């Protein structure tokens, strides 16, 4: 890293399939950015329905940005439990940097980084995309704990800034009592150039032929995890009810509802026009 520029440490649980924002930060002459990953690409770490195909992306996740890996000492390494990431090496990394950005609060490691930032007097930025305190599994005691203790204290008293990707998340954080000047909207970043290049390489007619879709057909695509909270059956039923002539539906994704979606397509009489590429 070059001297004279603020050294920013980004603390992340694992590489993501959309590293465009990290590549852009790498090009910013105002800051030196280093991302530390608490785990690398290991499908054995994913044990829940939320992350069925995290390792299936063919996108380079570690190219174009500076990164390092902190060893995970958890006796039960995983990415769906609080104790799944324990990376004490984060403490020294936080100390060596000028600012710390922590992507969440769901692991012991994140709390190590948060505590280290406070102890060493480093500016601390936390991120969240939450829009509600209601837990996904409906556990009321967890919602009460977050509402009464954890999140308000974390965002109001611990973080210097809270970064959010949407206006809904901003409203949520503001509802916890965080002042407006400490909530910063940072929209999601999409690599349009990479998408355009991939589209240019795609063989449209060959792909349609593979899925037995006519070249002149209208194609609707749904890209989602096949989970109850995503309600993919709504898309399927809407497609069947609309019954647009010469139309096809691509259900791109995976999850526990995959079999029921395929059965539902046949039951609704659109099985020959609904496709599941995975």
Annotation keywords:
single chain; 278 residues; alpha/beta; Rossmann fold; 7-stranded parallel sheet; 3-stranded parallel sheet; 9 helices; 10 strands; 33% helix; 16% strand; globular
Offer a concise description of the structure.
With 278 residues, the chain is of the alpha/beta class.
Structural overview:
By secondary structure, the protein is an alpha/beta fold. The chain has two domains: about 5-185, 3-Layer(aba) Sandwich (Rossmann fold), CATH 3.40.50; about 205-275, Glycogen Phosphorylase B (Rossmann fold), CATH 3.40.50.2000. Helix content is about 35%, strand content about 15%. It is built from nine helices and ten strands. The chain has helices spanning about 20-25, 90-95, 110-120, 140-160, 165-175, 190-200, 205-210, 230-240, 260-265, and strands at about 5-10, 30-35, 65-70, 100, 125, 160-165, 185, 220-225, 245-250, 275. The protein has a seven-stranded parallel β-sheet, with helices on both faces. A three-stranded parallel β-sheet has the order 8-9-10, covered by helices on one side. α3 (about 110-120) links the parallel β4 and β5. α2 (about 90-95) runs parallel beside α3. It is globular, with a radius of gyration of 22 Å. The mean pLDDT is about 85.
